[in-house]
Amino acid sequence: MNEIVKGSIDLIRQLNYGLVYASLEEHKELSRTDLSRLTGLSPASITKITRELLDGGLVVTCGESSVGRGRRQTLLRINERRFQFLSMRLGRGYVDMALFDFSGRSLARQRHLFTEEERADLLASLVHAIQVFLPKKALSLACIALCLPGQVERHSGMVKHFPFYDLRNWPLGPTLQQAFDVPVLVSGDVRTWIQAEREWGAAKNCADAVLVFVHNDIGVGMVVNGQLIESENSLLGDLSHLQLEPYGQRCYCGGFGCACTLVTNQALEAQYRDLRERMQEHDLPPSVTIRELCELALAGNSLCQDILHQAAGRLSKVLSNLICLLNPGKLLLGGEITRADRLLFPMLHQSLASQLPAEYLVRLQIESTHFYEDPTKPTSVQVHKALRDGSLLLELLRGCQES
């Protein structure tokens, strides 16, 4: 019983600190009286919390209030340059890295491409790439946030499966935490993407939204009634292995005609090569990337437009089930395929209209995601969330007290 009470007290303390920080983040400058009024915490609690935040350098004074006839009150704001955090997206053959301060300002960024030798020991190569990237001086690293297109145990930071490298039970989070002695936040990329769109992007003012990310697999993130749908089970949100054609191509999972064999980047690029050969379109390049395919389609190439039309029809079979289940206000699509959105989206609308009752499409808006060109920005949402819920805040305060 005592352990339960202690745990509850610790959680309440964490949430209270996070509540104060979130109020300062939202309102920029507040007095202690303002914080007490906005958070509902007692003046004594606010005094204790703000004293610790000031001592840790997370908050600074910024003048005095000028409203009212009583005693002028000291204003507080977040010290956005006290700490920095590293935001990364680990992809297939590369890692994007960006260093941010707490205001969200990017201080440095780099993409590191892994050689074949580095891929043989990816974890050691990643640690080395981070060490080379981080500046040697004037750095107060608060944490590392990383997302990747794999199956992740959120609380442990263990990667259950990273398909491109075929890594299983990969101790990514624990290894980085040991190497850099800071908290490490690891998440699947689609989960961070939908959080970022909910916080800052296309789903900001939408209570019900679905994000479908088409790349080398097909992931989905869902917000229902303003709440992110998530689970400790890392398979939540993976649509790659929905069967679209029972007698289709064999998938690496052992099934046939999975969605990832038909509408992912590799699948569309392979369809281009096959269709070009069968139609003897020798004036076209022998192979293209998905971006180049989209550019050719936008330029009026009929072969590439046919590929997109077929992809829209297949993708709509996946999307129609999600729409029937969740009835979202917004459907967000991410991936290189959205470079041809002015062709793709009307095709999707037309295909969905043939599969769904009209009432499901009345309020549905299909849009591109906002953050595809900056893959490190969605990852940073994990850090802001951990500050606002108090978990990272208390870690930083403990570190300040020990140093």
Keywords:
alpha/beta, disordered N terminus, Arc Repressor Mutant, subunit A, Nucleotidyltransferase, domain 5
Short structural summary:
The chain is α/β, with parallel strands linked by helices and 403 residues long.
Describe the structure.
The chain is an alpha/beta fold. It folds into three domains: 70 residues, Winged helix-like DNA-binding domain superfamily/Winged helix DNA-binding domain (Arc Repressor Mutant, subunit A), CATH 1.10.10; 114 residues, ATPase, nucleotide binding domain (Nucleotidyltransferase, domain 5); 164 residues, ATPase, nucleotide binding domain (Nucleotidyltransferase, domain 5, 2-Layer Sandwich). The protein is 42% helix and 21% strand. The protein contains 14 helices and 16 strands. The strands form four sheets. It has a five-stranded mixed β-sheet. Strands 14-13-12-15-16 form a five-stranded mixed β-sheet, with helices on both faces. A three-stranded antiparallel β-sheet has the order 1-3-2. The longest helix is centred in the first third of the chain and has 26 residues. It starts with a helix and ends with a helix. It holds the Pfam family ROK. GO terms for molecular function: DNA binding. One of its GO terms (biological process) is DNA-templated transcription. Belongs to the ROK (NagC/XylR) family. This is Transcriptional regulator.
Question: Topology of this protein?
Answer:
Blueprint: H1 2-27, E1 30-31, H2 32-39, H3 43-55, E2 59-64, E3 74-78, E4 84-90, E5 94-101, E6 106-113, H4 116-120, H5 122-133, E7 141-148, E8 151-152, E9 159-162, E10 167-170, H6 172-180, E11 184-188, H7 189-199, E12 209-214, E13 218-224, E14 227-228, H8 265-279, H9 290-298, H10 302-326, E15 330-334, H11 341-353, E16 365-368, H12 376-379, H13 381-388, H14 391-402
Parallel strand pairs: 4-7, 7-11, 12-15, 15-16
Antiparallel strand pairs: 1-3, 2-3, 4-5, 5-6, 8-9, 9-10, 12-13, 13-14
Helix pairs in contact: 2-3, 8-10, 9-10, 10-11
